[in-house]
Specification:
Elements lengths: L2 E5 L5 H12 L16 H12 L5 E7 L2 E9 L9 E8 L8 H15 L4 E7 L3 H9 L3 E12 L2 E11 L1
Parallel strand pairs: 4-5
Antiparallel strand pairs: 1-2, 2-3, 3-4, 5-7, 6-7
The protein binds coenzyme A.
C-alpha cells in the first residue's frame, strides 16, 4: 500500500466532508459522530482555501490513490500571547488502522508546527482511547491532567486526558 501525504486543497472539500461523516461513524472518540461537521461544500472549500494561505494552521490528508484514508490538523491563531501554541487532531479510516498512517501524519504535522514557530502542541483524547494515547506518547506527548466528564454520549460520560508536546 502506498500512502501519499499532502495538504488539503479547496477541491478536496466534498470528499473531506464525506470522510468526516465516515470516521465520525467509526468510533466514539471524536467530537462529532456520523453526521460529520455542519459545513456546506462551499464553506469547507473556503475554509481550506484560507488554510492553504495560513502561516500557522494546516490540514493534511493521507491518500490511498485518490481516496482520503486519514487526516490531521494543526491549528493555531495569530494572538501574540498564544502564537507559540498549536492544537492537533487526527483520524484514520478504521480499515487502515495499524499500518503506520497515524504515525505518518503525526510526523508531518509536528514538522509543520515546528517549521511555523510552534513551541507547544496540545490535544485532548478520551482517557480510554489507548490506541491514540499510544500514538501520542510515541511522539513525545505527555498527559498533564484529566477533564472528568469531557464527553457526554447519551447518558454516559467519558473523561479526556489533556496532553502536550513541548518542542
Ligand atoms: C488513533 C488513530 C489515529 C491511530 O492511527 P493508526 O494509523 O492506526 O496509527 P499507527 O498505525 O501509526 O499506530 C500508532 C501506534 O499506536 C499503537 N497501536 C497500533 N495499533 C494499536 C491497537 N490496535 N491498539 C492499541 N494501540 C495500537 C502502536 O503503539 C503504534 O505505534 P507502533 O506501531 O510504532 O508501535 C486511529 O486509530 C483513529 O483514527 N482512531 C479513531 C479516531 C481517533 O481516536 N482519533 C484520535 C482522537 S484524539
Amino acid at each position: 500500500m502506498e500512502i501519499i501525504y499532502r495538504q488539503a486543497q479547496p477541491s478536496d472539500a466534498a470528499q473531506l466532508l464525506s470522510y468526516m461523516k465516515a470516521i465520525g461513524g467509526e468510533s466514539d472518540n471524536l467530537t462529532f459522530g456520523a453526521d460529520g461537521i455542519p459545513f456546506s461544500v462551499e464553506q469547507e472549500a473556503q475554509f481550506l482555501e484560507k488554510l492553504c494561505n495560513s502561516s500557522h494552521s494546516t490540514i493534511l490528508l493521507a491518500l490511498d490513490g485518490e481516496t482520503i484514508v486519514g487526516n490531521g490538523c494543526i491549528d493555531g491563531n495569530g494572538n501574540p500571547r498564544f502564537r507559540h501554541r498549536r492544537s492537533l487532531a487526527i483520524s484514520v479510516r478504521k480499515a487502515y488502522w495499524g499500518n503506520g498512517i497515524g504515525s505518518g501524519l503525526m510526523e508531518r504535522l509536528i514538522a509543520f508546527a515546528r517549521g511555523t514557530g510552534a513551541e507547544v502542541i496540545s490535544l485532548e483524547v478520551r482517557s480510554d482511547n489507548d490506541h491514540a494515547k499510544a500514538l501520542y506518547r510515541k511522539f513525545g506527548f505527555t498527559s498533564f491532567g484529566v477533564f472528568r466528564k469531557f464527553f457526554k454520549l447519551g447518558e454516559a460520560y467519558f473523561d479526556a486526558d489533556y496532553m502536550n508536546l513541548y518542542l
